[in-house]
Design a protein that fits this description.
heterodimer, A: 200 residues, alpha/beta, Rossmann fold, 5-stranded parallel sheet, 5-stranded mixed sheet, B: 346 residues, alpha+beta, 7-stranded antiparallel sheet, 3-stranded antiparallel sheet, 13 helices
Chain lengths: 200, 346
């Protein structure tokens, strides 16, 4: 991946289990399952790995789930939504010990939400690996109402909470796990350019 | 020297104005007739008498009105003041820095007496009289940073230093030029400067960071930054951009003198003694074009700077909708004569 021209945007890597770590938690959404499978497939760490997975929204294909279930990991949990998955992660992290490693893969907005929550739960940034898979959607925080909109694929986008048309700024907060959205037509109400999809 | 304070507003009816004395104290930021991007950091040493840099912390005729405006902003958006849990020592450092400076240089306005950890602070214009124990936050009505920055002009950020970087881990930010403390909280130096164009490629931020990591206690530094604001609005935050952005479309050749303001930030950086954090203070000064052109040198020079500003910089500063109108208006105040060296008015 090319280094991002957005200086505050994280760089994503390739998941690689850390040998000898006491415990691994791999959390993936949608296409992120493939990254987990490739990284942990027949790795000795698998027996100390809990996998949390939720399919991409609206997806009915269960192939990834079946494949994950065939891995001999310590535990696999499949949730129907990212919200439920995050809830499970928080429960797991509340009992996590030093030396726990977290692996996150999926869309950028999913990675952002999980990383933000994990940091909030006290996991060290160095203990988190991320790999970007799937569509280049972004999680956006509306700077006006502070609400988050997930799965944003283009800018401008409409805030799901206050309805303001948002320019998605090239500015990313790890703490919030989101890009900043700012009113695009504040200076000329109603003057909203056509949406442009994000590249990878 | 006894200060007197203006009754004025920075919102709604916008009655803010500078007296002739405040105009002459204005920190005009241009040393030359054309625009050059520089980091322009210098030692924060005392400047000329009755200038903005005469004292480390400058209190002026706008003090009371600015503090009232800050209180309004905070009541509507408490997230303008935030501090991560590990910043408490730096908060006390900041309180000490501001109280001692204000009481030393404006003794008729503020007073501080200390007996060990037992401190007594009096703020006469705001009518506050507070006994408290330094280091014990339960003895103040707010956290130490919030308490003192509700009483001091300028925005304040506390930058924690670790891992060879600076981290925006606390701040009071209500008079900002379009950046959000709530969004940038917890970011490192490179991350919070991410939206600034051009400068990254010039290596400006690497050099600035290296310089600041070595900032020494007792040797603060400062720089000036500038933009332009329509109406004398202190709260030009992204949070409220959907409210004030429309003002940029309201400039006409007839109202430039009253509506268009040069906005200058006197930014200073101090190393703090206990926490080893850095205070980044951003004091905002506003001057409308009618006031600016009372100084012939500034009128000529600002006309030339604004006309020669590269487009990407004008866009980043958000001047697009009114730059040409303002340049045309200023041209009537530029007779083409040479300007004298330096920032100061003639």
């Amino acid at each position: 991946m090319q280094p991002s021209p957005i200086k505050s945007r994280p760089l994503y890597g390739t998941l690689a289990p850390v040998a000898h770590a006491m415990r691994h938690i791999a959390i993936a959404e949608g296409e992120g399952a493939s990254a987990v499978i490739e990284a942990f497939g027949d790795h000795e760490a698998l027996s100390r790995t809990t996998i949390l997975f939720s399919p991409a929204p609206y997806r009915t294909d269960r192939t990834q789930e079946t494949f994950l279930a065939s891995l001999s990991c310590e535990a696999l949990s499949v949730a129907s939504s990212a919200e439920d998955l995050l809830g499970e992660l928080v429960t797991l992290l509340s009992t996590a010990t030093m030396g726990t490693r977290l692996y996150v893969s999926g869309s950028e907005d999913f990675i952002g939400r999980v990383t933000s929550e994990a940091l909030h739960q006290g996991i060290d940034a160095d203990a988190i690996q991320t790999e970007h898979r799937g569509a280049p959607t972004r999680r956006v925080q509306c700077v006006h109402c502070k609400g988050f909109t997930d799965g944003v694929s283009a800018s401008p986008a409409t805030c799901a909470h206050c309805g303001i048309h948002l320019l998605v700024r090239d500015h990313y907060s790890r703490r919030l796990g989101a890009f900043m959205g700012v009113s695009i037509d504040a200076e000329a109400p109603g003057d909203i350019p056509p949406a442009e999809a994000f590249g990878a | 020297m006894t200060l007197s304070f203006n009754a004025e507003t920075f919102r709604d009816d916008y009655t803010f104005a500078n007296s002739p004395k405040a105009i002459r104290a204005f920190p005009f930021p241009f040393e030359r007739d054309d625009y050059t991007y520089t980091v322009n950091i210098e030692q924060h040493v005392p400047g000329p008498v009755q200038s903005a840099t005469e004292f480390p912390i400058h209190i002026d005729e706008h003090y009371v009105a600015e503090m009232q405006d800050r209180a309004i902003t905070l009541s509507q958006d408490p997230l303008r003041c935030q501090s991560l849990p590990h910043m408490m020592t730096a908060e006390w450092d900041l309180l000490e820095l501001l109280m001692t400076s204000m009481a030393t240089h404006y003794p008729e306005t503020f007073s501080l007496t200390r007996e060990g950890d037992r401190w007594h602070w009096i703020n006469r214009p705001l009518g506050l009289d507070q006994h408290f124990t330094f280091g014990d936050a339960s003895t103040l009505p707010q956290g130490p940073m919030e308490y003192i920055t509700r009483q001091c002009q300028g925005d304040f950020c506390l930058l924690d230093q670790r891992d060879d970087n600076l981290w925006m881990d606390a701040g009071m930010v209500t008079t900002q030029a379009d950046w959000s403390l709530d969004f940038d909280l917890g970011m490192n130096f490179m991350e919070w400067h991410a939206p600034v164009p051009l400068a990254h490629d010039l290596g400006v931020f690497e050099r600035a960071l290296k310089f600041l990591l070595n900032l020494q206690q007792g040797r603060p530094v400062r720089r000036l930054n500038w933009t332009m604001t329509i109406n004398p609005r202190l709260d030009t935050s992204p949070e409220n951009y959907h409210r004030w952005g429309i003002d940029k479309a309201s400039v006409t050749p007839e109202n430039v003198g009253d509506k268009v303001h040069l906005r200058v930030e006197l930014q200073a950086l101090w190393r703090l003694p206990r926490s080893n954090a850095i205070v980044f203070s951003i004091r905002c000064y506003l001057i409308k074009m009618d006031e600016l052109v009372t100084q012939k040198k500034w009128a000529r020079r600002f006309h030339r700077v604004l006309a020669s500003l590269p487009q990407p910089i004008a866009d980043y500063k958000g001047l697009g909708r009114f730059r040409d109108t303002t340049v045309a208006w200023l041209s009537r105040h530029d007779d083409g004569l040479p300007t004298s060296p330096g920032f100061a008015p003639d």
